[in-house]
Design goal:
Number of strands: 13
Oligomer: single chain
Shape: globular
Strand order of the largest sheet: 4-5-13-10-11-12
Distance between the termini: 67 Å
Bound molecules: pyridoxal-5'-phosphate, zinc ion
Structural class: alpha/beta
Number of helices: 14
């Protein structure tokens, strides 16, 4: 079996192993899964219960562990956001982010021989995708090459290199690096699982499949997620289109994409009513995982927001910090700043009247905060110090302050 590809924009189809259409836009896998309803999910674990909607079925090894993340509801964050929020905990993955879904599908396709002879798998990333790709290639006994920017912080490099990939730091334009790897990789049998390539997007569509499955037979009103390259957003759009076409959902949820205001090319284009997303000059933001100033699937994400009746918006670093803290203090959920944008964005959408208090909103928390806390060597501070002999007395005093 060979994989076909289709352009969401111009409809062009190809059997060539390319990531881009002749029109320049990114391609999706061209899949015709036939009829699907919720009874067609299997009892496989994680994302593989949707194997009827995937080009390959569950492999052994680490790839079997991707997906199946919890969705939690009824938290105090409903009051915070002003609507009914359902938190999708993508940080539960083996490497702490939804990127594992795409890495798992990519490696499963390699294992199944769907992508021909592969000498190595590569990626271009400075964070979660590099870590995820490195872990899944290690587990599937496949050589891995990771290109990182040469200004990557050493803590993040350490997190990536623990899995033993070949790490290459690159000086120069990151967008160009992304394109060169996609164009030239196939000549050398290197499968680049970059953020918006068809295989990665196909795996990452399972986030939205799982959310919709959790609501079935009802449909959530909206999904809110951070967007950077647009790979995850494009996967969510593909998922809801496929579910709708198959008749598994009778309405398409609105897709809302959130960016950091310091780097918001998709939100800017949405706001301006533009047709295409173009490169912006970005400032620094704490949401470093979503700081792509020239997103390869930006236009595709923009289209997804418009066609589902959603939007693309921006939140500033203060809103992100406040949301990150609310998640921890009110719901016990640790996320990295990029993920907190989804909750900050939900709150803003309610304030702007774009979401209602009665809506059921799936908030995609894309990555854990644990990695960051560990890597940053965050300074912990205790509130008090006592000798062990004084603990009993301390408890009495402490209990007194609680009442
Ligand atoms: C990669 C990533 C994103 C953005 O996903 P894109 O597919 O690049 O748009 C958001 N949050 C986290 C934690 C990520 O790792
Ligand atoms: Zn095209």
């Amino acid at each position: 079996m060979s994989l076909k590809r289709i352009c969401y924009d111009c409809g062009h189809r190809t059997t060539e192993p390319v990531a881009r259409c002749v029109c320049g836009e990114p391609l999706w896998l061209d899949t015709d899964y036939g009829p699907f309803d919720w009874n067609d999910t299997t009892d496989e674990q994680g994302m593989w219960r949707f194997d009827a909607l995937l080009p390959v079925s569950r492999p052994d090894g680490l790839a079997a562990a991707a997906g199946g993340t919890p969705l939690i509801s009824g938290t105090p964050l409903d009051a915070y956001a002003g609507t009914n929020v359902h938190l999708k905990l993508e940080g539960e993955h083996p490497t702490g982010s939804f990127k594992d879904r795409g890495s798992a599908l990519g490696l499963a396709a390699v294992d199944a021989g769907l992508v021909g002879e592969v000498t190595a798998v590569g990626t271009v990333s400075h964070g979660n995708m590099a870590m995820s790709t490195a872990a899944y290639t290690a587990a599937h006994d496949c050589p891995c090459v990771v290109f990182v920017p040469d200004d990557i912080p050493p803590e993040r490099l350490a997190v990536i290199s623990q899995f033993g990939p070949t790490v290459v730091d690159v000086a120069g334009d990151y967008g160009r690096l992304y394109d060169i790897t996609l164009e030239r990789g196939p000549d050398h049998g290197i499968l680049f699982l970059n953020s918006d390539v068809p295989l990665r997007v196909e795996g990452q569509k399972t986030t939205a499949l799982e959310i919709c499955a959790a609501f079935a037979p009802a449909v959530p009103d909206a999904l809110v997620m951070p967007v950077s390259s647009g790979g995850h957003a494009s996967g969510a759009w593909k998922a809801v289109r496929e579910l709708f076409d198959a008749g598994a959902i009778d309405e398409v949820p609105e897709l809302y994409f959130v960016q950091a205001s310091a780097c918001s090319p998709v939100a800017d284009a949405y706001e301006a009513g533009a047709e295409d997303v173009t490169r912006v000059v970005a400032d620094e933001t704490i949401a470093y995982s979503i700081a792509n100033p020239d997103p390869p699937s930006g236009t595709r994400a923009l289209r997804a927001a418009r066609e589902t009746g959603g939007a693309a918006i921006a939140v500033d670093d203060d809103e992100i910090r406040t949301a990150q803290r609310a998640l921890a203090v009110e719901a016990g959920v640790t996320v990295e700043p990029a993920s907190a944008t989804a909750l900050a964005g939900t709150k803003q959408l309610v304030e702007r009247g774009m979401l209602d208090a009665s809506d059921e909103v799936a908030v995609v928390l894309t990555g854990t905060g644990l990695k960051e806390a560990a890597a940053s060597g965050a300074v912990a501070r205790s509130d008090d110090h006592v000798d062990v002999d004084a603990v009993e007395g301390y408890l009495t005093g402490f209990a007194g302050t609680i009442e």
